[in-house]
Amino acid sequence: MNPNDGPADIANLLQTQREAHRHAPFPDWALRRDRLSRLRRVVQEHESAIERAIDADFAGRPRIETQIAEIFPSLAEIRANLRGARRWMKPRGAWVSKWFLPARAYIMPRPVGVVGIIVPWNYPLFLAVAPLAGALAAGNRAMLKLSEYTPAFSQLMQRLIAEHFGADEVAVVTGGADVGAAFAALPFDHLVFTGSTAVGRRVMAAASANLTPVTLELGGKSPTVVAPGYPLQRAATRIIAGKLLNAGQTCIAPDYVLVPRDSVDAFARCAQEQARRMHPGGLADRDYCSIVDQRQYARLTGYLDEAQRAGTRSIALFEGAARDDAGHRLGPVLLLDPPPSLAAMRDEIFGPVLPIVPYDRPEDAVAFINAQPHPLAMYWFDDDQARARWALQQTHVGGACINETLMHVAQEELPFGGVGPSGMGHYHGKWGFDSLSKLTPVFRQSRLNGMGLFMPPYRPVVHRLLRLMKRH
Questions:
Q1: Assuming Cys at both sites, which of 9, 85, 310, 377 could form a disulfide with 252, CB separation 3.0 to 4.6 Å?
Q2: Under CATH, which number does the domain 3-218+422-439 receive?
Q3: Which of the residues 65, 70, 217, 412 is marked catalytic?
């Protein structure tokens, strides 16, 4: 079967996996370990081919960035599941109310069945492997819909998965928006989607017709705050590093920076110095990533053109050319104190454009963040630990870093996910295992028990027992 043939074929593929799951609904650890090990071989044995494919799709993505942001975290996620899933899949003891003793209770994690995973273009390997590893560790089968905007990688991954897995275990689906819509509408047992908030709404609407549970990782405008007194050079070093990874095409990239009003120009100078240290060749530096395609490039340059028409002051961070239209390469640009009406202040930027928003008091910075939809991440730079804790308590975000950017996503022991418009649900490590399992509660009655006292006809002793139970 070729999953590219159309909606009927992917529906048949789902049915194949469903039937396989019915015949083997609870894989033992040996089989789960084998599947995870095969997934690890897909990554380990084909690193160079993966790097070349992603580089080709972006028309210029540094292979070292693919190593840092895709190969390494993918292997780390698989390793975490290999290390922990044998323990996670065991029944978990639970307390029984004293009134029900000597009965016992426990929680049995069981596979949900077939998991659908919709993968975006910006990190096509990691955002496929991370949820897939959790699905396999939890004993599920999985179907992946890869992005049409990364055709070289999608074709490679489809071939590699087919070489290492049966179609009834893991399968890769490719194709355009019509295939994606049909995929989201299938009655999966769980659906994982990573992408924009707008598309996430459509995916959730499609899933709702089947009452399919969803995990949505959506992004949004992740704020960064430089607190009063924090060293600007130190802040700029980490903020620019986080922003320029993958040329800002990262769901948790700093989207805008709130800086004390009297420090805006000084911060801009520090940011420019850091960008030029990182990429001394500017746009010609092959350690700097291209924008994935002309469509995304036009969107980003449109933000800059609109800002220029509005009279917003901008600062190019690279020396030399700021744009390469033919190669869809865009140098990083700061927008200083942009008006809120700009599209760059309303939309998730997802590229190397960084608005700098001045504020007068930390309370004003927090109020600005809270006036926006809940973001996927927040970055707070501050040496005052009490103020940093206060900021976390006053905001509602998917995840946060103090004095750093991005690094929370690389921690296997931390749940990763959004809140409200930036997503729902969690994955990574045990959090992914639990999200893609049914944590089945089990109550085991003892041969000797008092439940017969509570059956009709109700005798006076029942009323006395109820009064006692209510007091205790």
A1: 377
A2: 3.40.605.10
A3: 217
Dmax of the chain from CA atoms?
A: 91
**pTM summary value:** 0.94
Catalytic residue from among 65, 77, 169, 251: 251
Specify the amino acid at residue 470.
K
Report the distance separating Cα 190 and Cα 196, nearest Å: 19
User: Burial level of 23, CB count in 10 A (0-12/13-18/19+)?
Assistant: exposed
Our answer to whether residue 404 is catalytic in this structure is: no
CATH architecture of 223-417: 3-Layer(aba) Sandwich (3.40)
Tell me: the pLDDT tens digits for 250-287? 999 999 999 999 999 999 999 999 999 999 999 999 99
pLDDT average per 10 residues of sequence, the chain (472 residues): 64 96 97 98 98 97 96 96 97 92 95 98 97 98 97 97 97 94 96 94 95 94 97 98 97 97 97 97 95 97 97 96 94 97 96 98 98 96 97 97 96 92 93 96 91 87 89 84
Per-residue confidence (pLDDT) for residue 428, from 0 to 100: 92
DSSP 186-236: S--SEEEEES-HHHHHHHHHHHHTTT--EEEE-----EEEE-TTS-HHHHH
What confidence score (pLDDT) does residue 5 get? 53
The closest alpha carbon to 199, from 217, 223, 212, 179, belongs to 217
Provide the 10 A C-beta neighbour count for residue 387: 15
Using only the alpha carbons of the chain, give its radius of gyration.
Answer: 25
Under 8 Å between Cβ of 106 and 135: no
CA distances from 129 to 126, 155, 281 (A): 5, 15, 33
- Residue 294 parent element (H or E): helix 294-309
Active site residue 217: yes
Q: What are phi and psi of 22, to 5 degrees?
A: -60, -35
Structural tokens at position 208: 């709702």
Report the residue count for the chain. Answer: 472
pLDDT for the residue 138? 98
